[in-house]
Amino acid sequence: MTNSASSDGGLRERKRAATHSAITSAARALTAEHGLAGFTVEELCEQVGISRRTFFNYFPAKEDAVLGAPAALPEELTEPFIAAGSSGPRLSPTLLRDLVDLAVAHMESMAVSRAELAQFKDALNTEPRLVFKLMQGNREADERLCRLIALREHRDPTDPEVTAVATVFSALLQRAVPEFFDPGNSRSYRAVLTSAVEPARAAFSSFTPLTSSKDLP
């Protein structure tokens, strides 16, 4: 690739990122002030200075513009997570910590600055149902998480340990997200999620095994 082509590609990406950010910022501000029903896609486009067609090239609906990111995790977040795994007989000891880091990075990717995060929270406080949209598709999300953990740990996605970790962590996420976006919360998402995950980790580590050698066939 020539330097010119590389420069053009970088410029396109920067323009796309700037447009994405402008749409999201406007959608959040309008939602915080008027609610989702209080403005149209056309009014949003007029404020940003884009066409309706351009809007739908970025987002399928106003709700998605407020959330600002697709449900699927981007490769730049999943690749380091996968690379940190192991292929030993036990799950890697950093798996839970790395899952927390991954979830925090995903949340931060939807609002990359403190001001944008505050704007994001204002919008979700006005439209609490968007919190549930953020968490929707639980079964599909659980399946994706199983596949991601399995890929990292060199296991089958149906491996009982993989599905157990995915199920428990998904449940903890379901608890942390609405708590983080609660109007009275002032803690970071990492603090909220960690406060949900750590007691579960400590509780499970204290249990004795449910089976012993005499229970095995």
Quick gist of this model?
70% of the residues lie in helices and 0% in strands.
Describe the structure.
The chain has 217 residues and is mainly α. Helix content is 70%, strand content 0%. The chain has eleven helices and no strands. The chain has helices at 3-34, 41-48, 52-58, 62-67, 75-83, 95-109, 114-126, 129-135, 138-153, 160-180, 189-205. α6 runs antiparallel to α11, α9 crosses α10 (160-180) and α10 (160-180) runs antiparallel to α11 (189-205). The longest helix is centred in the N-terminal third of the chain and has 32 residues, at 3-34. The termini are far apart.
Please give the alpha-carbon distance between the first and last residues: 61 Å
Q: Provide the β-strand percentage band.
A: under 5%
Please state the CA-atom Rg, rounded to the nearest Å. Answer: 21 Å
Number of separate helices: 11
- Oligomeric state of the chains present here: single chain
Which class best fits the helix and strand makeup?
mainly alpha
The H/E string reads: HHHHHHHHHHH
Shape: globular
Report the biggest beta sheet as strand number plus sense, adding barrel if it closes: none
Mean pLDDT: 86
Q: Say how many strands there are.
A: 0
Structural features:
70% helix; mainly alpha; 217 residues; globular
Describe the SSE topology.
Elements (H helix, E strand, L loop, with lengths): L2 H32 L6 H8 L3 H7 L3 H6 L7 H9 L11 H15 L4 H13 L2 H7 L2 H16 L6 H21 L8 H17 L12
